[in-house]
Amino acid sequence: MSFLDLKNVTKIYPNGTKAVHETSLSVDEGEFMVFVGPSGCGKSTLLRMVAGLEDITEGDINLDGKLINEVDPSERDVAMVFQNYALYPHMNVYNNLAYGLKNRGIDKETIEQKVNDAAKLLQISDYLQRKPSMLSGGQRQRVAMGRAIVRNPKIFLFDEPLSNLDAKLRIQMRLEIKKLQQKVGVTSIFVTHDQVEAMTLADRLAVINNGIIEQLGTPIEIYDNPKSLFVAGFIGSPQMNFLDGNIKNKTLSAESFEIKDIDSDFEGEVKLGIRPEHLSQSENSLINLKVDLVEQLGSDNLVYGQLKDKKDFCYRCPGNLTIEKGADLSLNIENNKYYIFDKSTGKRVN
Amino acid sequence: MTRFITSSFSHLILLIGILIMVVPVWMIFASSTHTSSMINMNGLQMFLGDSFYENYLRVLLYQGGFFKEITALKMFFNSFIMATGVAILSVVTSLMAAYALVYYRIKYATLLFWIIFITILVPLELRIFPTYSVMAELNLVNSYFGLIVPISASAIATLFFRQFYKTVPDELLESAKLDGANTWRFFVDFLIPLSKTMIVAMLIFMFVFGYNQYLWPLLVTTSEQYWTVVMGLKMMSGSIVHRFAFVMMSMVPPILIIIVLQKYFIKGVFQDK
Ligand SMILES: Nc1ncnc2c1ncn2[C@@H]1O[C@H](COP(=O)(O)OP(=O)(O)O)[C@@H](O)[C@H]1O
Ligand SMILES: [Mg+2]
Fold it and tell me: With the C-alpha atoms ordered B140, B141, B142, B147, is the resulting torsion angle positive or negative?
């Protein structure tokens, strides 16, 4: 059994909303797991069940070899960082960090030492006497982290802790969280709806949709090998291009081109997925793109345009290529990197 | 220029208002420092006389009442006990009632709250006989307990605390739980410090409420030993200057408590989020 083990966990809220469906998941000790998915897909619910803040309707959760379904949150030895930080407004930073330790009956000197160590690690030693209202967003974020770290819990839970920060700070804190987690080595679950955050932080990530884990794996596995239409569309930026198509006798016809000898026995209506970065310009092309707009990011250009049948399409090329608006590009799929999904079920078929 | 005129004008109106309220009180105070024969001959006075100590000391220590058993000093003591008791007891009960209503999974908590709130429509005066008979049966007539308890459940204070608790974000409770706080600790370590200013405001409010009680103490006490200041105002006999002096002194406790704690009072009622 792994460190954290969810078995067929289901959550139905009293008003009948089924937020999580029979979900099973294991997290190893020291692992950084990320739950990613669109808003309302049940990420927070799943996390809060691990914390004990929501009852588990069905299924079992084991933490460190112990069934914790009925264990009170105060006894679970988990720490959580909330989106709005939930710092204690009437306590200074020192007491914010110390409160959880005091409740565990730890003696004063040990508390002082632990708080000072955590404060140093997070570079908040200078603000220990301040109230949360006198801190900036980034500093509050650090205090919230400190409150989790100082207790040295079995598991860290983060519920979209970066979404209240501005873009620059978010990237900086993202890095710091990752470094910190590697340094402290505590098992962590991090919830986010931002796929870039998910990809950069995760050891493994769980892509959740409608209360179901659609796919579980390392970021690269999921990027390279999405198992469903939803995962393919959700992970990757800019989004994967999707074209309607049809397979007959191992030949896929889509738009105005055909791909022969595909690696699938599927027959019928499909969606063909092509990532913008898996395209290149070439003579004997499959795809003709009429350019509407070019976004120059420096290192890359994002070329947006339309195919023959007016379908929107995106192509990512190196930044040193100059592409004019209105140009006609001939594109080919690099190394046969395309994904085929059953149109009715969304399942990958190649 | 026009701004100067309008602002002077509004200040003038405020000043007139203040004068209308303050002058009568000042006249009573000024008159209370004269001898009674002086007042009897010349009417109310605008300026201070020289019998301040004499009049006030006599009033404080004079054995009054029908049976000459009680001094003004004792009345002040009784009033203080009653007002403090009402203030503390009602704040404690409403804090706890509001806590239970907001944080415990009570069925129909909202309905329950409105039932509590409706009691505002049933003031003590309306239920005074049943309340009296309960006190009589419990043998609590002529006791501080009997003076305090029946008026110490405050729907208003419960309302204030409940509304405040409802604005405390859920994450705070959840965070505290994960930090190992149980229900009692959350109440003591979070809700009470967070509502500190409101608690002080309610203490003042209920102190003045308790101090101002007239009908209930009149009914529930037969022994002069339990007379309060407000009852004494009605029962006072004696010369006019002594009565004036007593009136002046009766205003001191509420004013004093408001002056000392007004900072909290204003913050608690108007600024607490
Ligand atoms: N307390 C609740 N009562 C009823 N439904 C809820 C409650 N909390 C969340 N939900 C519903 O459960 C679903 C999942 O919510 P949540 O876990 O918060 O999603 P996420 O964190 O992924 O955005 C949503 O449809 C939401 O409306
Ligand atoms: Mg959420």
Answer: positive
